[in-house]
Every structure is written in C-alpha cells, then in structure tokens.
C-alpha cells in the first residue's frame, strides 16, 4: 500500500541507542550493529504537525520523504 505520506517520530533512545560520535558510528556499521532487526512495539501516536521541509532531517529521511506529505508524530502519553 502506497499512501505517499511520511510520518516522522523522534528516535526512542531507550530502545535504539545513538552513537556517541562519528567514529563509534563507523565502528558499529562495520560490526553490523545497524542491520535491520525486527521488534514489535505498540505505542499510541498522534499527528502533531505537518512539515513543510524534510531537508533538516538528514539525507536518508529527506530522500524517502521528498515530494510526499510529511507529518510529525508524538507519543500520545507525552501530549496529554
């Protein structure tokens, strides 16, 4: 199913730890730590805003979401 929409969430660092620096990032890539891993997470999310541009979100997200309606999602329990 292709909806031509992108939904962006903030990285949940309690599940996915970001690298401390660029060197650690490269070491982790070489070690295969960023290979796809599947986990089932259930969280209630709400659309909070429409983004006019994705260029500030980095190359990968900008490439995937270019020319698509893009929205920011936020965890429901942090809004209410």
From TrEMBL:
Subcellular location(s) per record: Cell membrane; Endosome membrane; Golgi apparatus membrane; Membrane
Annotated ranges, domain BRICHOS: 1-73
Bilayer topology annotation: Single-pass type II membrane protein
A Pfam family hit: BRICHOS
Chief location bin: membrane
GO cellular component, one term: Golgi membrane
Keyword terms: Cell membrane, Disulfide bond, Endosome, Glycoprotein, Golgi apparatus, Membrane, Signal-anchor, Transmembrane, Transmembrane helix
UniProt family annotation: Belongs to the ITM2 family.
PANTHER family assigned to the protein according to its UniProt record, in alphabetical order: INTEGRAL MEMBRANE PROTEIN 2B, INTEGRAL TRANSMEMBRANE PROTEIN 2
Name this polypeptide is given: Integral membrane protein 2
Protein source organism: Cirrhinus mrigala
Upper classification of the organism: Eukaryota, Metazoa, Chordata, Craniata, Vertebrata
